[in-house]
Write a structure and sequence with these properties.
Elements: H1 3-10, H2 13-35, H3 42-51, H4 56-88, H5 92-112, H6 119-133, H7 137-161, H8 166-194, H9 199-223, H10 230-258, H11 270-293, H12 301-321, H13 330-356
Length: 372
């Protein structure tokens, strides 16, 4: 297999689209700098490449950060170079003092506002060009801002003309997140009910969940900057919050399983726990597909999950009445209840989401109070 074929297999449509948009923005910007006869138009080309992100929301955020950093840096650099010329005279000592003071101040600003991290770089460029080329530092700073602004405008225009929306990718990411959470749940149930803790397998499942949650948070931040209704952003935020809470419960289950003895109180209701876990897996997987495709969740998921919650709760209540749990030591009881309560709360979250989305049969009763 040659290199082009290998690259084609590794790249997906989204990556190719982003590469094409970046190349188009850079080429258009380059042509405009030649048309406008900009002496240092390469700054505009650099800016168009740097601010072009995979999604419209990311491009808007990067554009704002670069524009703000460039404007503040150009202004501060020009003012400090002009002041150094007036007070200390033109020369290395004056520009050196201007460089030190300006970059120091810009670094302090950047520590307080991430959007200002380019201010120091722009200020240093303005001072250096003033020292090499001479001329008005204010004029150099103004041209630097205009060049960068040109690149930003072109990049945003290309992004909006050929958009790739973060909220679309996020919806698929949220669907994938529910699927990964379901896979982690299956691993934990197999570990607990099977009696053998596989640390490596559990770790990899947890790692996949946490990485995807982090990626989805980044996508949500970009999606909220894109044009759209408040309801769209609210729906995505609600789904991500659901997955965050689900992850908390499953991580609590993982902690309870890690140090629990293979044999314990859970064996008295292993059938009920298995059915609850499988019903929850089914509901999470179906909900994940529904989120990704904007389709209603499977109608049978909620009744099965509600019934499994009720059955597990009723069986545990019977065991407590029979004082079966009294023969187990406190450590085992604590491990069991940590596992069970986390599983139950995760099931309740998904059940509530299914009812909220209308993913139930019209004739199905709501789950009993013991399941809610």
């Amino acid at each position: 297999m040659n290199l082009p074929e290998h690259l084609a297999l590794r790249l997906n449509a989204s990556q190719l689209r982003h590469a094409l948009r970046t190349a188009i923005a850079a080429t258009i910007t380059f042509a405009l700098t030649l048309l406008l006869n900009l002496e240092q138009g390469y700054w505009a080309v650099f800016s168009s490449i740097l601010v072009m992100q995979a999604h419209v929301g990311g491009s808007i955020a990067a554009s704002w950060a670069r524009l703000l950093g460039t404007a503040s840096g150009a202004l501060l650099g020009a003012l400090s170079a002009t002041a150094a010329d007036a007070w200390l005279g033109a020369g290395v000592s004056g520009l050196g003092a201007a460089m030190f003071v300006t970059v120091f101040f810009c670094a302090l600003l950047a520590s307080q506002n991430e959007n200002l991290r380019l201010a120091g770089l722009t200020a240093a460029v303005v001072i250096c060009l003033h020292g090499v080329m001479g001329g008005s530092a204010l004029e150099i700073g103004l041209w630097r801002f205009l060049e960068v602004g040109l690149g930003i405008v072109v990049a945003l225009a290309v992004s909006l003309a050929w958009p790739s929306h973060a909220r679309v990718v996020l919806r698929y990411g949220l669907g994938k997140g529910l699927t990964e959470l379901s896979a982690l749940l299956a691993t934990l149930l197999e570990t607990r009910l099977g009696g053998g803790y596989d640390a490596g397998r559990v770790f990899h499942r947890k790692d996949a969940v946490l990485r995807l949650l982090l990626r989805n948070r980044q996508l949500l931040s970009a999606a909220l900057r894109e044009p759209g209704t408040a309801a769209q952003g609210g729906e995505l935020s609600t789904l991500l919050e659901l997955e965050d809470r689900m992850a908390e419960h499953l991580l609590a289950m993982a902690h309870a399983v890690e140090n629990a003895p293979p044999e314990g109180f859970h064996r008295h209701l292993s059938d009920e726990l298995r059915e609850l876990g499988e019903a929850l897996e089914e509901a999470m997987t179906g909900l994940g597909r529904a989120v990704a495709t904007k389709a209603p969740p499977p109608a049978a998921a909620a009744p099965r999950l509600g019934a499994a919650l009720a059955a597990a709760g009723d069986k545990l209540l019977d065991l407590r009445r029979q004082r079966t749990i009294a023969v187990y030591d406190l450590d085992e009881v604590m491990h069991f209840y940590s596992f069970y309560h986390a599983l139950r709360e995760a099931a309740r979250l998904v059940l509530a989401e299914l009812w909220r989305r209308g993913g139930v049969e019209a004739t199905a009763p709501r789950p009993p109070e013991s399941a809610r």
